[in-house]
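Notebook entry, structure prediction.
Reason for the run: the old model in the group folder had no record of what sequence produced it. Starting over properly, with the input documented here first.
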Amino acid sequence: MSSTMATVAVMLLGGAGTCALFAQSQPTPLYKVQVVDATTVAVNYGNRELPTKIKLVGTVLLPLARGEATVFSRRGATQISAKLEGLPDPARYGAQYLTYVLWALTPNGRAANLGQLVPGPNNKAKIKTTTELQTFALVVTAEPYYAVTEPSNVVVAENVLHPDTQGRVEMVKIHAQLLPRGEVKYDLASAAAVDRAPQKLVSMQEYEALLELYQAQNAIYRAQEAGADQHAREIYQKAEHLLEEARRQHQAKAFKQVVAISRQATQTAEDARLVAQKKPRPSAE
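New structure, fully documented this time:
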């Protein structure tokens, strides 16, 4: 059991695992993985004259993932350049997961979305990004779309100290509020099926367009679940119209337009979800 990302409860359950990819059921062991009490390492990078490195390692959910990040802190911004390998299709954690996101977690429990990690055919990904934060831990999660504003608890990688890491070390306590979206039900057979499934060959442009289109759909579904169609109707409808336009552009094979419009739809849907969450609800009597 991993001692890095968590005290993790792993239970072997009997039952039928559902593989959404093939829409069929089969009796398989189902591992229910729940983060119970998690801590990870944060580093205060300060205003250093030289960049420093920190390692990225897989958690119990993805033990073969590995990589590193180079962090360079300057006044007003911290630059991060990260690369990882061993990132398979995130759909192994559930059909709703379409991408990976790199997060900075502060010791006070704040989470900042640093950007999307899109693995290539070799399961490698890299990102260059910046944050205004100075003290933080780096973690990678599987997500339904890139513009999420809070991390899921599908934490697949985290930072650990590199022999050359420079900076003051602090511990980040990962509370339930920080990973709010429930437990992971990880069907091993379904994960293997996703890995083995024959894939329709498309161009990289079309692949990127479809990925962004599906993320926009997920964002709109999640906004609707939050009541955005009622409590943030104007913003929600704008997201729907953008998604419809992205679909029309896909039919026209205007893939660059699909990417741009889908990303706008995703961000708009997330904005609608956040607005809806803040609207007061009538109290139940």
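Summary: Residues 111 and 119 are 22 Å apart (CA to CA).
The old model has been moved to the deprecated folder.
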